[in-house]
Sequence to fold (714 residues):
Amino acid sequence: MNKRTFRYFGVAMALLLSVSIFVLASRSETDELRRELLIKVINFAINNGHYNPGDLNNEFSEKAYSLYIDRLDYGKRFLLQEDLDELDQYKNSIDDAMKDIDFTFFDQSVDILEQRIEEASSYYKDILAKPFDFNLDEFYEYDADKVGFSASKKELKDRWRLLLKYETLARIYDMSEEQEKAAEDSDTVTVKSFTELEKEAREKILKRYDDWFHRMGKLNENDRLSVYVNSIVNVFDPHSEYFPPKDKENFDIRFSGQLEGIGAQLTQKNAYIEVSKIIPGSPSWKQGELEVGDLILKVKQEGEEPVDVVDMRLDEAVLLIRGKKGTKVTLTVKKLDRTITDITLVRDVVVLEETYAKSAVITDPETGKKYGYLKLPSFYVDFSRINGKNCFDDVKVEIEKLQLENIEGLVFDLRDNGGGSLEDVVKIAGLFIDKGPVVQSKGRRGVKKSYDDTDARVQYDGPLVVMVNMVSASASEIFAAAMQDYERAIIMGGLHTYGKGTVQNFTELDRMVPKKPADMQELGSLKMTVQKFYRINGDATQLKGVTPDIIMPDYFNYMDFGEKDLDYPMPWDEISPVEYTTWDASYDMDYIIEISKKRIQNDSILNLIDENGQRLQSLRENTSFSLNYDEYSDMLKKREAEGKKYDRIGKDTLGLTIQYVQADRRDIVADTSKKARMDVWIKTLKKDVYLLESYNVLKDITDYQVANARKEDD
Fold:
């Protein structure tokens, strides 16, 4: 959303809401006012900013209702059919509720759900108090989409019984297998009877559900309201989304790859906040006293009284622990030996290194030629800081490092890259081409725009292979499509990429309500689809994604995965192409592709991956499990025996010679933690069969270039 549009939104919303705010404030509680404002502001923002706001009618209502009910009780563990019958009266009136700012349906649904959760909290305790009989011929259907809502409390309680029996059965089997292996390795292992294992399994399942219901008990109306609002917003398209304040902060952290805090990942463990991971290089890691497994009891800001966080929601505790760089926070923790101690930490910028670009060098052991490998996990950018970290600068630097190694070709790995900054992907594409268009877009009024590389310099002009998979989305698809249209690179991956061809902008909702009461909680943000993007050849990547030049076997090839499998995605269409000049490659691309295809057909590991993908698809379709222990055990042992055929996938070292980039070596060797992480990464790359084939394609290109040069000399 541009600044001019945003100013229009602000003025219009001020006029729209200025009267109602103070009228409502005089006769309603602040929370009631907040949710009414939230719906009004979202309504206005979508109607005036969304790419395709559509009509609020009965069809819209039915879609929103369906999404909400599914999310309200996705496992069908709480609501009864009679509850659905009661709520069905609102199926066609959510559009009216939005226009009238009416929360009757929402309030009624939450009241019903909370009542049913309270009832279910006794079901699991009663059921797990007694041993299960695993000799009966009973079955549990794992896929909730294949069953309806229970017709009575008795039927629902029996559904809980089957669920808990299945989970206990699975836990017994795992414990039995572990016990059997331990007994083989040692004569001192005490072998427990089936009865003892069954009792222990039930106790563990009981504890897990105690924790789960405890976390659910911490959900408040704002959490429920977010589900309701997003069920409405997602009807417009799956990528338009409402973010409560805390969720927007977490999104920004993922997008930028860094945060200001202590560098400890936390989890909720019943009433406690537990340390689950220490991020290398962070304040917690450097200070050294905070450890995985520690339970945080209190949080104290410098100069303030400590706050008890026992029985506090995880997100609320995290807000207390995070803070600005340079500030101090003291944690009172219970250690694993049950001692209690205070740990004072100085907050700093915590860098999530796994989200950033990094590179390595692959060496041909026969010729000594070097090839570059560059991994980009996301198109990240930090908007919160002037000259903040961004993927364009980092990719540029990594290419410069690789060029110092005199690489013959480059593999650019965008697998699992879900996208990010549109501006940065355009600039990164410009590193590989002369100036020209990279991607087109179309806004809600049909206004078209071309995003061009205006810099005629080409940082890297050598052979290029781009690796993608079905998780590669959005900006990744823009890059892959541009390189394919320019014939600048060979794209390698599964059947297609994800298929997200839309652009979203964030709107800070509070800035649209200038007279919001001071004591009102923040409204949050709205991520809204404002454009669709198109390839320079005019095609959309929406739904279809990018089809690689070389299609490789992949588990995703046999899964319903991608934009097309989401609820209510935008349709595919096309626009006019723009003028562009294809790259003058120094090799026959069709010839190189054919060589690779033949090699893939004869590769034993890739054939195993394809075969295993078909097997796993068949297993996913079978969602009904026997609750007879012998039958369940036989089924799993049969699957395990069949699965042994595929054990070598991802475990074989494939002969790739991979090393750190020379420019990074000194820093890596000097930091033992970083060296350990890089060594693990390099070891993983050496077992990557997809990287091996990409490297082979680069070798084919350089071999072709050498042979062609000899012919010209002759």
Q: What stands out?
A: Residues 153-185 form the longest helix (33 residues).
